[in-house]
Amino acid sequence: MTLDMRRVIDPDTYFDHNLPPTNLQWAHDEVDRFVKSQSPDQRIVLVTSGGTTVPLENNTVRFVDNFSAGTRGSSSAEQFLAQGYAVIFLYREHSLQPFNRNYSHNTRGILSYLERTSEGQIRVKREWEEKMGRDLDLYQKYTGSKLLMVNFTTLSDYLFLLREVSLLVASLGPRVMFYLAAAVSDFFIPSHSMSEHKIQSAGGDLTLRMNQVPKFLRPLVKNWAPLCFIVSFKLETDPELLGPKARHALEKYGHQVVIANMLDTRKCQVWLFTKEASDPAIIQISKEDQDAGRDIEQDLVEELDRRHQQYISNGQQQ
Ligand code: PAZ
Questions:
Q1: Could you tell me the sign of the dihedral formed by the alpha carbons of 169, 171, 177, 181, in that order?
Q2: What is the H or E stretch that residue 175 is in?
Q3: How far apart are CA 241 and CA 28, in angstroms?
């Protein structure tokens, strides 16, 4: 399989040529209701999480996926809730979700947390009772009132939903944060260029031609939500590229923060780049803290919370 990634499309054209997701109207209504139900000074964060897929066929059997388990997004959503934010969680279907993440995607399987009592009832095993009880209480406390979950699968779903949510929250201005942790494909096949049905193998090798995905951070920052506090992520595997690419993104799009991370060390170290500081702030967490159950997202979200408060009180001057 070879990839040809040369053609560039602008963001508006993208929406004209790709189909919206089936949950777009539902998401519009739910986000609208959620936002209107918050108090006037409530801070809101849109957390995006998980990877987008890029279908190879309109009747999709095969797709290209983007790396992301959803750990960053789901753990961060929990921390934002703890900091008092209302959270819109835009996540890849079947990726990790806040509070559920501790039980849903490990090798054990949900049934291994349960047992049957001598009376025949099913209950949580004693060793998990305390932790599960805590997560259940938080999940029930926040769901609906402070946590709204909206799911996507494909790149196209994600982009339509991101635009929809952005336009709905934009009027709230600086008190809204965008925390764009989802891993979004850089390449795709437009709907009209895709095979309608399953690609057949009878023809031998497959050559794919993929277009470059338009850079949606630009319209997001400039047009969709210009007054909001926008945090994007940059993932690299080559350490030489990480700093320059994070800086380049800040200069090109003019938003507030780029969080840079390396694939191998993303759970223990991140760098925060801003326009104001010449060197990035480093947030890291020791192996001992990780083993004790502490996530780097706790420190990361606390730092962003501080910077967001500053941004609000500076009246967007940060
Ligand atoms: O979801 P996860 O915890 O496995 O990974 C998180 C991440 C590395 C996808 C995220 O921190 C990130 O960098 N997102 C942006 C990726 C990108 O550059 O498109």
A1: positive
A2: none
A3: 37
**What percentage of the chain carries pLDDT values higher than 90?**
88
What mean pLDDT is predicted for residues 247-271? 97
Q: What is the per-residue pLDDT across 282-299, written as a single tens digit (0 to 9) for each?
A: 999 999 999 999 999 999
Per cent of the chain over pLDDT 70 is: 96
At residue 188, the pLDDT reads 95
**Angle between helical axes of 24-36 and 155-169 (0-180°, round to 10):** 30
Ligand 1 centroid, distance to 119 Cα (angstroms): 46
Ligand 1 pocket, 68 CB below 6 A? yes
Where do the domains of the chain lie, and which CATH numbers do they carry? 2-97+147-313 (3.40.50.10300)
How much distance in Å is there from the Cα of 114 to the middle of ligand 1?
32
Assigned token pair, 262: 């390396």
Largest Cα–Cα separation, the chain: 65
Q: Which of 210, 190, 216 is nearest to 11 (CA)?
A: 216
Q: Which atom of ligand 1 is nearest to the CA of 261?
A: 13
Distance in angstroms (rounded) separating the CA atoms of residues 47 and 88: 6
Alpha-carbon distance 106 to 197, whole Å? Answer: 34
> Using 50, 70 and 90 to split pLDDT, how confident is the model at 6?
very low
Ligand 1 atom 6: residue of nearest CA = 72
Atom of ligand 1 nearest to the CA of 50: 1
Beta carbon of 234 within 6 Å of any ligand 1 atom: yes
- The answer to whether the beta carbons of residues 139 and 99 sit under 8 Å apart is yes
If one compares 108 and 66, the residue with the highest pLDDT of the two is 66
**Is the confidence at residue 138, as pLDDT, over 60?**
yes
